[in-house]
Give the backbone structure.
Amino acid sequence: MDETVREAEPGITTQTAYKYIQLNVVSGVARLTLNRPPYNVLTIDMMEEMARAIEGLHDDTDVRVILMKASLECKAFSAGIALEDSRPDRAFQMLDAFQNVFRNILEISKPVVTVVNGQAIGGGCELAALGDLIIATPKARFMQPEIKLGVFPPLAAIILPLIIGHKRALEMILTGDPLGAEEAQRLGLVNRVVPEASLDEEVEKILAKITAQSAPVLEMAKKVLYDTIGLPLPEAIKRSSNIYLNQLMYLDDAKEGLRAQVEKRKPVWKNK
């Protein structure tokens, strides 16, 4: 059973205990750590924990950003789906649990920053690819080797073409060959490649920039980007404009941002 402990100052620190992941919230950052050593192989139980943890953050006004990474005890970001949960008799339950994780990542109102310092294979690669921002080290490797096992990656087949292009996604899926960190950055899968020695420092800098912004504005910006994927340009512009005029313009923070610009000062967000 999950157990949540709140520190003396509510909303500042929250720690939730799970079996295969770790979740704690500190100063606006929800840190979700994959913790199934040695390779973070994804089981149905682990994916159910992840889905539940992410869903529980949706309406948490204390959280501005989610950081997803592997624990220090693990040798990979994730080596993919467990073989015992990939059998035909468990395929439905596995795919359902997997899709729940992905659905919650896509629908979560918070930006998701993913850190990859090692291999992201199969389902682990698909999981990493759904991060809104990916920070990697030169040790990172992204691979979809399912074709070598006689199957194909059902979610990567949808999301990778949107991120790295149709032809390169086909090559990656049909050959099972890995992408190194630098190539993944060139193709747009990875935002930054940083040395392992400065990884924590660079991640904290990015988190600080995001948490310095208005929470509802961050949420609306992410919503527009995802809600307009694949739409014809006129419809995408209409939907973006509708959110801008009928939601964003009614926020106190939108008015505060403009006032602060005129008064040449740093805005003070009310997060509403």
